[in-house]
Amino acid sequence: MDPLGYFLGGPRASRAFALVIDMAGSWGIDVQDEAALTVIAVLRGAARIDGTLIDDGDIAVVRGPNPYLVTDVDGSAASIEIGRDQLCRSLDGRDLRSEMRTGVRRWGNTAHGETTLLIGTYNRPRDIAGLVENALPRLLVVRGTVRTDPTVSMLAHEIAREDAAGQIVIDRLLDVLTVNTIRRWTESSDDRAHSWLTCDDPIVTAALACLHDRPEEPWTIEALARHATVSRATLASRFRAGVGQSPMAYLTNWRLTLARDLLHDPNQTIAAVGRTVGYTNAYAFSTAFKRETGVSPTDFRNSASKVTAQ
Questions:
Q1: Among the four given CATH numbers 1.10.10.60, 1.10.150.390, 3.40.50.720, 2.60.40.420, the one describing domain 202-309
Q2: Cis? peptide before 266, omega within 30° of 0
Q3: Which of 140, 240, 250, 282 could form a disulfide with 271 if both were Cys (CB 3.0 to 4.6 A apart)?
Q4: How far, in whole angstroms, is CA 125 from its chain's centroid?
Q5: Against a cut of 0.70, is the pTM above it?
């Protein structure tokens, strides 16, 4: 499968957390929710995410699970903390969810603030394809697209409704907004890091197609070079320049990225997942998986199941 298609097909929100925030004056929010991915659209005003400006009309995507600060200006201190399960507290531990609620899925320190943010959060890691952690930066910003993407206004409208099927519509609209934002970023960003998202070298993309379409095959640099019709040295050099790592290192990362997603399916055995991504036996797969992630496939699956159940 083409990696961009795999990646953009990944977001599948399930009971995503979504709301509109209105803030005025000097403010700061310390976000420690450990969410997999958060989309923030600036409907009015401006804010900073760890000091990076997001202005009126911008859309930002924050990759978790590390904490980050959202403030009115750079240097403002946080007075609000967002924890796991979107628990909102003051720094002294007071629950602020009811106190700062201003409407249906609307929250803030005022009813109509200088800054209005639409926020959609994928709380569960399984709702995002594993490629997120390999392909996206910690923070990406797409400038001035709020008013050209109708999904934003549709999502804002749905967030403001109390409807039995509203959560399902919110989930799907958030998926579309996420895909649209990341796709625009891949097409226009000037500060993208080396990855398959940005590489357009035909030799490298030919090799990538082999790895993505048939990860289970016992690929070597020689075999990839034959498919790309270049020498081994040429492929190795061009691949590293275009992707940022060697073909074999990339293949390992790709296999284990696929494996992390497949492990969320309880109907597939550990051995079956390993075979699907190119490991001939469960032991070899478990060894490679633990070397890369620090945990065994079984422990990873058990941990993911606990998060999903929350």
A1: 1.10.10.60
A2: no
A3: 282
A4: 9
A5: yes
